[in-house]
Amino acid sequence: MGNRCAVIGIGQTRYRSRRTDMSIAGLVREAALRALEDAGLTFKDIDAVVIGKAPDLFEGVMMPESYLADALGAAGKPMMRVHTAGSVGGSTALVGASLIQGGVHERVLVVAFEKQSESNATWALSTHLPFSASLVVGAGGYFAPHIREYMRTSGAPDHIGTLVAVKDRLNALKNPYAHLRIPGIDRAMVESTPMLWEPIRYLETCPSSDGACAMVLSSEGAITGTPAWVHGTAMRSEPIFRAGRDTVSPQAGKDCAADVYRQAGISDPRRDIDVAEVYVPFSWYEPMWLENLGFAAEGEGWKLTESGATALDGDIPWNASGGVLSSNPIGASGLIRFAEAALQVRGTAGEHQVDGARTALGHAYGGGSQFFAMWIVGRDKP
Amino acid sequence: MRDVAIVAFAQTRHTGHDTGLTEPELIGPVIGEVKERTGLKRFGFTCSGSCDYLAGAPFSFVSALDALAAWPPISESHVEMDGAWALYEAWVRLQHGDIDSALVYGFGKSSLGDLRTIMTLQLDPYYLAPLGLDQLSYAALQANAAGADRAELDQIVRRSRADGRRNPYALDLPDPEGEDVAVRPLKATDVPPITDGAAAIVLAAGDLASRLCPRPAYIRGIAHRTEPHYLGMRDLARSDSAADAARAAGVGKGPVEVAELHAQFPHEEIILREALGLRDDTEINPSGGPLAANPVMATGLIRIGEAARRVHDGAARRTVGHATSGPCLQQNLVTVLEA
């Protein structure tokens, strides 16, 4: 894992359907300045900038790190651009952390964003390469069959997805940055919304958001403010077209979790982790990832959700921030998970703080459930 | 810093037209070649560079994983940049000390679209892109600012194409003739060829490097810098970011026998030679450089691979590889390789 690394500053924009008051540069700069302010630093104190976002087609700007160099104070410094599909926000944090862990830099600014109002993500995601038939519309069209397969094999009752959709939106009411803050959200409201991709209803899917998130990462010697220590980092990828791969509970997710748990000394994730921010863009992915990440045995994840264990007052809160279901600037969604995990162990999550959180998991996935990025952060120095 | 070396390099026989190969089909053979050459089947880390806008579809790198046979799952990442920056990310990862090998690759098929216009989309979308400044127009602005001697520019193109004809992987382009103007002051022959291609490199750390390769090319320095995006905020006649990166990489600490520069236009070679502080006895782009083959997103990685190849085959003891990104050399990466 190399040298010690800590999160010392976190900045988020308010997530909204449209930030027409802001250019793309304004959006990333708002998040970056808030992260710097949180760390008590300025751009002058930053050695390098790592920026991540999902496909460039979402905003119609090719390789936008070139244009965003000025807004992020990167001129004269190294700047890198990460793109690993939906997991990119997580990967961006890991590439930034790697620069500290490798001993290359003392302080790195990581930023991820999406300004979805510049285009229509569903259609940008439905574009297909020549000669390969596109059978699905949007990400929901791709993931719905995997959810149906999970329901079939686990015997989960139909209402589990609804429970997650309600729980995460209740959490969002406590998060001032969250996009979907729906007063009076309940099961009846979720069940009354249209079916988009069987079994995913409108309110069981993530919104399209504009927003950015930023973090200042630091070496042990350059810490200012309250650190959230990085205890483990891992990435895993597997091919999308491999015959026989388990798309419901992918091996890459299991391997990535095993790697990051080993580094952080976690043997029983449900017991050893206090709060988890996990990439759940469709409600059913909570029970599916509970199993994939080892919080529940195979086929048992939905029972954990149903028991209320993952609620804010449960024994293992998942997505106390409201998660991807409540805010989804796609390229930033993974970084927000990683940042929210850090907020929790720093004890600075505000109204959605989990009391006494000392160890947290940040998780992101992307592509056809094939790219995974994870980290474990803790209040204590590793 | 931990000793990390380039122990294998492979590239496609680049083409000036679409041969019908998909990107995974383009990458497959070069990955196979570096695996065979090193005997490694698995790597501690894998990183690639490519650009969705060349394929005209999101996630163009996703299917590349199929070419890797990434099973069991691999530790892997991707930059939406030239593969040279993927190499940088892998070099950083090797500094952690827990893994000893990394696979890096870059690929691009610029034959599929109108590259000159696509590159316009790289500009500030509010103030610059709407002006419709395409790649040749902004390169011409820089050529104008550099004010290079026409005979020197012609000589660079002539030399690059001649070297390219001797390089089996580069395109077979004739000696430059004619006075056709692309965008003044650029002549048609100053413009790099549209090219499809891919390249792969294996990095190894510690003892593994000398076990895998009789003459590893050790990375003695590697650094990159960006500078302001707006062309009006820079002195286009020079490249501060290339000069800073060269200083940080330690180019000037010894004589440079060969430099492979990611100069897509002849005036860029002149600007970069000065920024890197290269002396007249440094051989520039013996491979032919980007003017003889320019598979966008792999071109920079190929420069580093070609610089390593001179060390591998014993032709040189100290070489430099350079890569660039962004309009008018906005971002530059420099690496120093030694036997």
Give the SSE map.
The complex is a heterodimer of chains A (382) and B (339).
Chain A lengths: L4 E8 L11 H16 L8 E5 L12 H4 L10 E4 L5 H14 L5 E9 L5 H6 L11 H17 L5 H13 L14 H5 L3 E3 L2 E2 L8 E10 L8 E10 L13 H14 L4 H4 L2 E3 L7 H8 L8 H7 L15 H4 L3 H17 L12 E8 L4 E8 L4
Helix pairs in contact in A: 3-13, 10-11
Chain B lengths: L3 E8 L11 H16 L6 E5 L2 H4 L8 H5 L7 E4 L3 H12 L6 E9 L5 H4 L16 H12 L3 H17 L14 E3 L2 E2 L8 E10 L1 H6 L4 E9 L14 H10 L8 E3 L5 H10 L7 E2 L14 H14 L5 E8 L5 E8 L1
Parallel strand pairs in B: 2-3, 2-4, 9-10, 9-11
Antiparallel strand pairs in B: 1-7, 1-8, 4-7, 5-6, 8-12, 11-12
Keywords, separated by commas or semicolons:
heterodimer, A: 382 residues, alpha/beta, Peroxisomal Thiolase, Chain A, domain 1, nine-stranded mixed sheet, two-stranded antiparallel ribbon, 13 helices, 11 strands, globular, B: 339 residues, ten-stranded mixed sheet, two-stranded antiparallel sheet, 32% helix
Describe the fold and architecture:
The complex is a heterodimer of chains A (382) and B (339). By secondary structure, chain A is α/β, with parallel strands linked by helices. Chain A is built from 13 helices and eleven strands. Chain A has a domain at 5-121 and 208-222: 3-Layer(aba) Sandwich (Peroxisomal Thiolase, Chain A, domain 1). Chain A has helices at 24-39, 65-68, 88-101, 121-126, 138-154, 160-172, 187-191, 251-264, 269-272, 285-292, 301-307, 323-326, 330-346, and strands spanning 5-12, 48-52, 79-82, 107-115, 195-197, 200-201, 210-219, 228-237, 275-277, 359-366, 371-378. In chain A, strands 3-2-4-7-1-8-11-10-9 form a nine-stranded mixed β-sheet. Chain A is globular. With 339 residues, chain B is of the alpha/beta class. Chain B has a single domain (1-339), classed as Thiolase/Chalcone synthase (Peroxisomal Thiolase, Chain A, domain 1, 3-Layer(aba) Sandwich). Chain B is built from eleven helices and twelve strands. Chain B has a ten-stranded mixed β-sheet, sandwiched between helices. Chain B has a two-stranded antiparallel ribbon with strand order 5-6. The model of chain B has no long low-confidence stretch (mean pLDDT 96). At the A-B interface, helix 2, strand 3, helix 3, strand 8 and helix 8 of A face helix 2, helix 3, strand 3, helix 4 and strand 8 of B. Chain B: This is Lipid-transfer protein. Chain B: GO terms for molecular function: acyltransferase activity.
